[in-house]
């Protein structure tokens, strides 16, 4: 094969670990996280007696638990990603991993293809095989492959197959699933090999008893494995913010430790000498060295500001919110038995911050179920107008019963076309003959006259079905012939060449020879492409056909132009020789073939045009309207022509007649594109910072203009113009241009993007966006396989964003705010205590409390809130999409919100330290015994802390469930149970050194003044929060004559009940609408339904 290099075996390793490498590799990966590496560093410091004032277990227990949970998750993910190798039937039974390049293997029905194979022979007539490619592109439509006639003659004769001595030269391994270039040299003849002769690993053999194949590529060199490259790791904006905040926390930790170290140095210099009589300093230790050691001691003690358990908790929250998406019955599509699926668990909260949605049209906004609706033949238009009453459609449906091979599901409403066919008009017969011959459809006829078409695209299936009903029935095909039934007469055309369709050519042609010996070329393709290749004599017909095309496109129909030409036999013979030479070369095969195609596809004669209807999916206009109200901008990127795209835009309510203006850019040169963009900006030059304008505008731009506008010199003007518009539609775009548009917005806009599509041509766009959504539709599953989330219908997007996205973002932000609050509060108490213990790095809490504070006492309550909390229910979230806006503005968690948490923690820590300190100072029990000892103070401080953070959690919770209640009260109960157990006589007697707080709990917590202190401290900690929320409602957003506030409010004559602690404040047009989430954060957002009236009820 191609070059003398070492061929891979068929063994595939899809797992990262094995039994021996799991522990070292997984630990290496985990310690690449800065927080884990930091705690490992702390553990090393803690084994140094001169530095550590804490026991080793305070760091080891949290670190081991975090590493263990992550390791279990990684191990399970790796286990389920393994590809299990199973034996398959061969002449000599072997396992997949033992297959080698050059082997000839036998496959049986319903078996997976073991490697990339050159098909040699099969059990089916004409050496056909039927394969399912669901594992490659998700498509369940059967594809047809066919062996070369010269190898098919070997059949299943083992002697002939064993003696096969062909030589294959082919391209090197690559990931192109739709392309293969190679040649087979056999019996001194060279044969071209293309994708139609190749069976790829991962396919499944269907409806074929057996086949034989020659292994071309094995193992990692197969196209399936070549497509398993690393996907770009997507991270949320909160992840990026967290990285910045963690670095700040490290800096802040270093600052606090430096302050305390300086304090220790000063204290040792001024006061330390007084204590040397009974606390002598070690040799060589002075005040400055003591300060140095104290710095590292406080690095250990204040380590809780660095959240080691944060990342594990975040992953648990994201996993839970992903399950909500998977389990959502309202996103389940019963017709295809397709549930919604969160294919990644790392991007949930990003769904609540989407600003731009980039959508494909065909199959995404539309159903991608094509029906032949209209056509233009020789200047005459056929088909009924859409404005006709549906009852007329039903009564005037064409009766095709005269055609025994007609498809009973097909319907048409214009009888004049049937009459034209029956009158044997030559141009009409040529039109349908072209549709019956120029395609790649395969026909399956299990019963006489019962035809089933296997089409690789719905368009082709619709056109071939139309030709079938009008009397030109495609019956069967072989590599050399196409058999059709023309008006009841069966004819076999010799298939001389297929000029393939691709995204660059945008057309397909076939060259056939009729039974009468006439050579003809039939071509169908995009109007702009075919028009360039027409004979000048077709100019008048082209003008009429163009008018019809514009009418069809105006109705949202998909159009193709048909043309043909007769070929000279001598010329074709010479052209065919050159075609064979080009098709059997390995170098520049595609370029050489394209030149030959261009040469023969010229001077065509226009036949007419087809118009196929692709109906909108259910709920698309309503979904787009709701997303628009959420201030989400939707851009449609489609390959359809401009008129079709515009019509779909109006159908979807993206473009509306009441818009101020709809700008159209269709220039063909860079200078003209620049002038059109500049003209639009001049019209609306006054742009506000958020690029809103006084009015609603739409923008439509075609592919030619977009190619120039995406140039570096014009891209910013394009973006400014597009962002000024409420709706943007890009038509005639290529898959690459789709990705370029997404990248342009990501490059210059601080906004989260989402791309949604259903086909392979949307994959680049889906991968380019922050979040990719795949629609499992009619074009296979390549988009789904490349996506982060998937479902069956576009209308589910609003629930994904407005419900799951908003909830996920809200929950994650609440979690982060509370997590930082409780950890900073916990740590700051240590900081204040340092000023009262000579900066000696003495801890204010019991060591066991420090160990289990984050892991036991406060872990489940915050997880309960983060998994179940709702400010409003799902119905309200969809009904009032304006609630989505705070996520787009990063209002719930940002650097500002983080610093507010730090300030709140600072205040709470001051109260938590100084109130218990003052209460315990020189205090005695009610029996006169002393209670002002360190251990009693530590118990009081940690009890006040835990109760305070639990009360704060209760204030932050908007939606209470039984689980929340159990977690919150259960955590408090567990705290007191563990405290009384650890401070008991028994634990002290068994582990004397580890449990020194003997009797502290029972001696302190039975005193009324201790409980009074706990109550007072907790009230003082939460009082500012309650007061702030009360004053926020009463003063800052007081009811005004034009905008009155109540938890029951009237909107557009509709009574709406507010539930829960979430409150939505609405102000009439001209004011700002404010959404107050849990009475804590007031966030400006756009008003509801434009001008609205809100009043008390």
What gross morphology would you assign? elongated
Mean pLDDT: 82
Strand content: 15-25%
Integer-rounded radius of gyration: 37 Å
Low-confidence stretches: 1-5, 81-90, 387-395, 686-690, 1039-1097
Spatial separation of the terminal alpha carbons: 82 Å
Number of helices: 37
Q: Helical residue percent?
A: 40-55%
Number of strands: 35
Sheet with the most strands: spatial strand order: 11-30-29-28-12-24-27-26-25
Query: What about the largest sheet?
Result: 9 strands, mixed
Question: What class, by secondary structure content?
Answer: alpha+beta
Binding site for ATP: 360-362, 460, 501, 524, 558, 638-640, 732, 738, 761-762
Pfam family, one: PhoLip_ATPase_C
GO molecular function, one term: ATP binding
Active site: 360 (4-aspartylphosphate intermediate)
